[in-house]
Amino acid sequence: MFGAMAAAAAILSLGAAGCLDGTVRTPPGEARKHFRPGGDLDRRQDGGEAAAATVTIAAVGDTAMGVTPTLPPDPAAYFDAVEGELKGDVVFANLEGTLTDVSESPKCGPESSECFAFRAPPEYAQFLADAGFTLVSNANNHSFDFGEAGEQETIRALHAAGIEQTGLPGEITVVQAGGRRVAFLGFAPYSNTSSLTDVDAAEALVRRADARAAIVVVAIHAGGEGTDAQHVTGSEEEYLGEDRGNPREFAHRTIKAGADLILGSGPHVLRGIELYRDRLIAYSLGNFSGFHNFTLEGALGESAILHVTLAGDGSFRGGRLASLRLVEEGQPVPDPEEAAAHTVASLSAEDFGSTAVRVAEGGAILQR
Known about the structure:
Blueprint (H helix, E strand, L loop, with lengths): L53 E10 L26 E6 L2 E2 L19 E2 L3 H8 L3 E3 L9 H14 L3 E3 L6 E5 L2 E9 L5 E2 L3 H14 L2 E7 L16 E2 L2 E2 L3 H11 L3 E5 L7 E4 L2 E4 L4 E3 L12 E10 L4 E12 L3 E4 L4 H14 L5 E2 L4 E3 L2
Parallel strand pairs: 1-2, 1-16, 2-5, 3-4, 5-6, 8-9, 8-10, 10-13, 13-15
Antiparallel strand pairs: 1-17, 7-8, 11-12, 14-15, 17-18, 18-19, 18-21, 20-21
């Protein structure tokens, strides 16, 4: 088992990474109509609530494939090095950006010098599907980079490729997985997403999901950003003056409301993992991929694929962290040195004490 290890002494600045634009990400207008095909209705056939021993979920953090026109030369092979790890009843990612041909961004005006608007072509949804992804969250600070038209085209592209999505206001996405109905919700501090900062409303939405599904998975885009944001503070976190919520309070309250698994993204670095009420909370899975989207030095290039096995009632049965490193043009590759697992082991012990998970050799996630 990895012992508690000191945090890296050299803390690197996030630099000109994807979210360091300082621009307002909340779309204009207070009463816009959201594109929600099917609303919170099931989009898959209900095969019945057949008893299942376990449900397996593979999850990654911030996922992008470049910014048009700077795109991978061979996008179909972009995830080849880790494709064997992208397996499970559900394979989940936070889609950090859009899949659209819309070229004008409302966030990047003519005077913008440091504005990051992420888009890849709509056909890239098929590359995500071919790699193994089955469901993504659009609840983040780049899903509205190209306005409502870009958001709508992204969702259409995902559905056409057979990928489910969640995270729009009030959205509950229910899928069949391992013989169980599993509900996915996504939260972020923006008006085009389910709200991370209105925790009372989040609790109510989780309770609705819990009434409709055996297992509830909550994705959060929460917390500060960069190498100085690896620790979960337990208090409200900000970035560039923007309220990024209190991730720990949000996770605990939504678990009490019925959530069974919390999957975090947003800080662009790995954070610790906590086991609370026998439910797993991964506060940040870091960057998973980005062709020139993200800065990759040091901790910003440490990545992982989280494998979780849940019992039929949503309680934690077991898990594993597959350690990755982002190399060259932001591609994820296996890391035989298991730096990510070491980092998560250390951060978990430092931040959560008795509720921290243990991380064993090979990345196995164990209860204390």
